[in-house]
Write a structure and sequence with these properties.
There is one protein chain. By secondary structure, the protein is of the alpha/beta class. It has 2 domains: about 200 residues, TIM Barrel, CATH 3.20.20; about 60 residues, DNA polymerase, domain 1 (Orthogonal Bundle). The protein is built from 10 helices and 7 strands. Helix 2 links the parallel strand 2 and strand 3. Helix 5 crosses helix 6. The C terminus is likely disordered.
Length: about 290
């Protein structure tokens, strides 16, 4: 059992990176990837736990992109977190996110909502503020009943206060990930654009943009959806990946490694991803599953 998609408190999860490594080990997960949104900051602490656990700890990231006018997330797995150019690029993405957050505060205040960036930051101990933290503050203020409602009504793509930030194209994301020695994968494709993408056509275009594969295993997929994405990956010659998308207390009822209870991702998935890494990358920060 492996899990190639989870989040720590360095983005919008609630667990410390060390706690994720320990939890993965206790659950018998053979490989676990930390894939925080637009940041590498949690990886040093996560990877430093490798001598203490039998679970293989995999470096990753989840990049926010724009595709066909909609938000799309691209996972970078097996990236080298010490790659200087990659780190500089991710720092620039963080700057863009911070600029978006200031505009989002202004938009919410213009709607008569009494909210400040300082108040939102209290939900983000790592310092990286995402819309998840805005949603929690809006719920705490009583502006909405719960965080999901904040996304639906205010800060999601169709919300009245939505503010995009300068997102990457899938081509840029794939290039960055490949140059850092990783593989580029679409995260939970069935959950984007309210199901309006025709995925066999969209994936063909993303494949031409340099994307290597996508999550065919995911916590929220039913059997038919998982089967569809596995068959699509096979038909296009793209790589299937998968993960729980664990966020700790921010996604109640979703377990590390098992999702809603039935998620099973075979180790061969990671073996195939590793075999597809750029051939010119000679990083030594990882080891194969034996």
């Amino acid at each position: 059992m492996i899990d190639l998609h989870c989040h720590s408190c360095f983005s919008d999860g609630t667990d410390e990176p060390e706690a994720l490594a320990i939890k993965g080990d206790e659950l018998g997960i053979s490989a676990l990837a930390l894939t925080d949104h637009d940041t590498l900051e949690g990886l040093p602490r996560f990877l430093a736990m490798q001598p203490q656990v039998t679970t293989r700890l995999v470096p990753g990231i989840e990049l926010s992109c724009r595709f066909l006018g909609k938000e799309l997330h691209i996972l970078g797995l097996l990236v080298d977190p010490q790659n200087r150019e990659f780190r500089a690029r991710i720092d620039e993405v963080r700057t863009r996110r911070n600029q978006r957050n200031v505009k989002l505060i202004e938009r919410l205040q213009s709607l008569g909502i009494s909210i400040s960036l300082e108040a939102v930051r209290q939900w983000a101990p790592s310092g990286l503020v995402s819309r998840t933290h805005f949603a929690r503050q809006l719920a705490a203020l009583g502006t909405v009943g719960n965080p999901p409602e904040a996304f639906r009504k205010l800060i999601g793509e169709n919300g009245s206060a939505f503010v995009p930030f300068q997102e990457l194209s899938p081509t840029e994301a794939a290039q960055w990930i490949h140059e850092a020695g990783g593989v580029a994968l679409v995260a939970h494709p069935g959950r984007f654009a309210a199901g309006r993408f025709i995925w066999n056509e969209a994936m063909s275009e993303l494949q031409r943009a340099g994307i290597d594969g996508f999550e065919a295993y995911y916590s929220e997929y039913g059997p038919a959806e998982q089967r569809y994405f596995l068959e699509l990956a096979a038909s296009l010659g793209m790589l299937p990946s998968g993960g729980s998308d664990y966020h700790g207390a921010n996604k109640p009822g979703l377990e590390l490694g098992r999702g809603r209870g039935s998620l099973i991702i075979p180790e061969s998935v990671l073996e195939n991803l590793e075999a597809a890494r750029p051939r010119n990358h000679n990083g030594t920060f990882h080891q194969r599953i034996s």
